[in-house]
Amino acid sequence: MTFSFQLEHRDGGTAARAGRITTAHGEVLTPAFMPVGTVGSVKTLTPDDLRGAGCDVLLGNTYHLYLRPGVDTVRTLGGLHRFMGWRGAILTDSGGFQVMSLNELNKVSEEGVEFRSHLDGSRHLIGPETAMRIQDGLGADIAMSFDQLIELPAPIEKVREAVDRTLRWARRGLDERARLRGEGRGVMALFGINQGGTDAAERARCFATLRGLEFDGYALGGLWVGEGRTLGLEMVERDCAEFPADRPRYLMGVGHPVDVVEAVARGVDMMDCVLPTRNARRGTVFVSTGRLVVRNAAYARDERPLDPECDCDTCRKFSRAYLRHLFVSGELLGMRLASVHAVHQMISLVRRARTAIAEGRYAAFRSEFLDKFRSNETLVRAAS
Amino acid sequence: MTFSFQLEHRDGGTAARAGRITTAHGEVLTPAFMPVGTVGSVKTLTPDDLRGAGCDVLLGNTYHLYLRPGVDTVRTLGGLHRFMGWRGAILTDSGGFQVMSLNELNKVSEEGVEFRSHLDGSRHLIGPETAMRIQDGLGADIAMSFDQLIELPAPIEKVREAVDRTLRWARRGLDERARLRGEGRGVMALFGINQGGTDAAERARCFATLRGLEFDGYALGGLWVGEGRTLGLEMVERDCAEFPADRPRYLMGVGHPVDVVEAVARGVDMMDCVLPTRNARRGTVFVSTGRLVVRNAAYARDERPLDPECDCDTCRKFSRAYLRHLFVSGELLGMRLASVHAVHQMISLVRRARTAIAEGRYAAFRSEFLDKFRSNETLVRAAS
Lengths: 384, 384
Description:
The structure is a homodimer.
Chain A: E1 4-10, E2 17-23, E3 26-30, E4 32-34, E5 36-37, H1 47-52, E6 57-60, H2 62-67, H3 71-76, H4 79-84, E7 89-92, H5 96-101, E8 107-108, E9 113-116, E10 123-126, H6 128-138, E11 142-144, H7 156-182, E12 189-194, H8 200-210, E13 217-220, H9 229-242, E14 249-251, H10 257-265, E15 270-272, H11 275-281, E16 284-287, E17 290-293, H12 313-317, H13 320-328, H14 332-358, H15 362-373
Parallel strand pairs in A: 4-15, 5-6, 6-7, 11-12, 12-13, 13-14, 14-15
Antiparallel strand pairs in A: 1-2, 2-3, 8-9, 9-10, 16-17
Helix pairs in contact in A: 6-7, 7-8, 8-9, 10-14, 10-15, 11-14, 13-14, 14-15
């Protein structure tokens, strides 16, 4: 198994850390932001675009790839890396989030989650063992434990039950990986997921057991599902204070630049989110001074790039006026160029965070970033 | 004015020619295929993609750009080249085709064509003078004369009237360019358009006048509108036999590989068509052995590239299986990767044609191409 994590720097003024994950598909610098390649592509972008943006790790969705093209097809074609032409690392989620959120008619039992495909209505079951076998078949560098999600807020008994089941499923997933390894497979790293929603005591209780299991890293589960930034960050701070320093910490589903900067300050190493690229396809991008709505009429003759401080391919070559025109005209190139910026912007953000951590000035970096991000100054129309 | 055409080679066995057009935005090797950048982008592709495919000239649509973002906006932003980030040559059409084909309620008079915008219903008139001013404002390297199109088949009197009006409009366009040049503008080259549909006598009559006007090149108009390949190619042969050897010849709206190869054999220098890229976005591409429907189930596990003989970025990096998956899943990256192939395939075709002409073996090139193109051999499922 080729997986290791080196903690390289700890910031003095915050809990921020900088590290390096080694995988069979190269190194991943942390803090890391993972673009989401839902069904085998980060929408509109090629692997070359992603590399060009400095990306070293992607997230692939187990649920989507399991249904289409199917794990046997992906395995036959040499695994997800080869299938999609991506040479960097891949983390796959467990499928747990999608089987719950994309399926109204799912049935949760001790065995797993039974659901109907959102594509053709066919019936399937994914449980802790199948989730391992699928992720192994896809060829993930990092797999995620299959956990039970519940809708929040929920009565405390519900939260407890979900925590207990998540822990039983965590053991079963580890056992299944061990079984696969016995067959010469299952080389992937495996991350456990801490649950308990926004109940600090439940999260602590969950991790008390989880820490005893042989996971290669730990994820912060059940957060950023509507609880609000303040409470979410409180839970992040709590979990990170307890997680062992020598394992990577992954905050799932977080991708707003402010959340990223705040989570890193609390000790998070990895994040993923569709938000930046989904927003980009809809014509809204994050720039260093906030949010920019590309089709705003104010940009019709604005020759400046989306973000004058960005050195992505889009910002080096195209004006706001052109991008606005593409969006107003419904041209697909607009989505693509905005997505190039969006991915570059997030990766550049975590890279700058990493440098600040290495130099022991993360607190200053964070306040400068937040002040500027909230300034909205590029939204003012260019003099013309 | 920076525009010249050098005829460099004539094939011995056919009427095919190889040449070189010089513009203020670089050289254009002929035979040339021009991808169509309808509203300021060749859909899904960047200028870098186009350059990577060997493209040296694009077509821009006057009608679309006139309506959105508008010629004043494009001019203010430094012209179409700068607006879209394209450093190569641009030929703009006159808008005549769109004002007729996208507008049921157009009114043709001696002044021009009055039409309603397909975007917002607003009323506009484009005539021979406005067509010049718009193309000049866009910054075209090569502008097209505003001609009158009619639906075919049509009674001979209708054809004659359209020819006569096209000739009057041709003179007015030239006069308008002269007037613009008096103001220090109008640097673009201007091509006249021969009309007369599939009536050889009318085409001859039209050109008898057109040849006396100071056009920098000549286009073959009113063809590939449903008359069929045989009759179309007959008209091409007729026109080319009459057109002066020292001016480029542009066959409008032609882009099927077989038509391209046949038109070049008859002396055509330039062509354009949305067909290859439009087909590509819908999941059908031309390959060296014919047509390939990407979402065909036979390709689900086919590791070969779309065209094993193609060296485009898509064929060098991605399998049919992956492209099929992208199309079946509705991923925009599929359209983009297929478009990269489509443009590369057409430009590579005219480049190989050029080499064959230079080596005096175009007849052999043509028959080898046609034999292979019609073989459909890559459509057979890969052994697996």
